Amino acid sequence: MKTTRNNQRGSVSVELALGLPILVMVVLACIHFGMIVKTRHELGDATSHAARLAAIARNADANTIRSTIQARLGAASSCSSLAVSSSTAVDAFGVRRVDVTARCTVNTGVAGPLIAFLGTAEIAAKSSMPF
């Protein structure tokens, strides 16, 4: 009976040693995904806001729109390497509009390098407003 109890103690340690890395990776992946979703929401909001201001001012300059997006995101944003493009177009109904597209890389901290196999953390947002 004593030998069975000692073997069970060892098996718990082995199961913990095998299962803990998988559990840590799942938790880090959840944090990584959560930060990407949060930053995607912030980028979408900032892009929509910048497109609205560009339409009101009738100014489709990409640098002005980029600075508006950066100001809306704030200094604490996880968004880095922000790239912004803008264009004006006329749709099938004759309405002129400004199209704004913003792309950035999400800085997820420690979780990023550990779970790089999930893919890049690059996100994009697009918004259009009547011009």
Descriptive report:
By secondary structure, this protein is α+β, with helices and mostly antiparallel strands. The chain has one domain. It has three helices and three strands. The protein has helices spanning 2-57, 62-73, 111-114; strands at residues 79-90, 96-106, 122-130. It has a three-stranded antiparallel β-sheet with strand order 1-2-3, covered by helices on one side. A hairpin with a 5-residue loop joins β1 (79-90) and β2. The chain is elongated and about 80 Å long. The mean pLDDT is 86.
Task: Write a brief structural summary.
The chain has three helices and three strands. It is an alpha+beta fold and 131 residues long.
Keyphrases for this structure?
single chain; 131 residues; three-stranded antiparallel beta sheet; 3 helices
Q: Show unreliable segments.
A: none
Major sheet details: 3 strands, antiparallel
**Radius of gyration computed on alpha carbons:** 23 Å
* Total number of strands: 3
Terminal Cα span: 82 Å
Anisotropy-based shape: elongated
Strand content: 15-25%
The secondary-structure element order is: HHEEHE
The number of helices is 3
Percentage of residues in helical conformation: 40-55%
What is the residue-averaged pLDDT? 86
User: If strands are numbered along the chain, what order do they take across the biggest sheet?
Assistant: 1-2-3
Broad structural category = alpha+beta
Number of domains: 1
